[in-house]
Amino acid sequence: MMRRFTVDDVDLLTGLDSDLEVMRFLTGKATPRDEIANVVLPEILAVYAEHRELGTFAAYQKSDGVFIGWFGMQPTKEPAMVGVGYRLNRTAWGKGYATEGTKALIDKAFGELGMDRVVADTMAVNHRSRAVMRRSGLRFVRVYHEVFDDPLPGTEFGEVQYAVDRPTWEAGRCA
């Protein structure tokens, strides 16, 4: 089950971003509460205001309503393309939530929103996220390199992009 975040969700996001293993391939450090409150959450809410169907959504286990993290479908510079991603609490890892949520976002992007392409990116060394991308129907596109002021271990191997286009998604649904 997913819902939009609200201004009252600072603690949920702070808890998620305070786990160094969760943040390992993102920033490598915890996100301070004031940054969540003053930057991260306002940015999430701004996407809702500008793009009615897109954004970052709080995810909960259906069975007991426990917060497990978030899934996002973000606008890109290309109007018919969205980027998907997720961040889950460690307690939710290895249970299929990442793949299930990513597939649901891809289906919504094509089936409801009329998108032409869905993309996702991660560090090349983040093998678990790469596996989720493949299981979700995304296919490897490229390796690219970015310059970071404070690079994480593994940055030297680059970032990877995975994607699926509408014809490929449609063909997979008919198989």
TrEMBL record:
Entry keyword annotation includes Endoplasmic reticulum: no
PROSITE patterns reported for this sequence: GNAT
Superkingdom of this protein's organism: Bacteria
SUPFAM superfamilies from the UniProt entry: Acyl-CoA N-acyltransferases (Nat)
One Pfam family this sequence matches: Acetyltransf_3
Keywords attached to this entry: Transferase
Molecular function as annotated in GO: acyltransferase activity, transferring groups other than amino-acyl groups
Record-annotated N-acetyltransferase domain positions: 1-167
Name the record gives this protein: N-acetyltransferase
Organism: Kribbella capetownensis
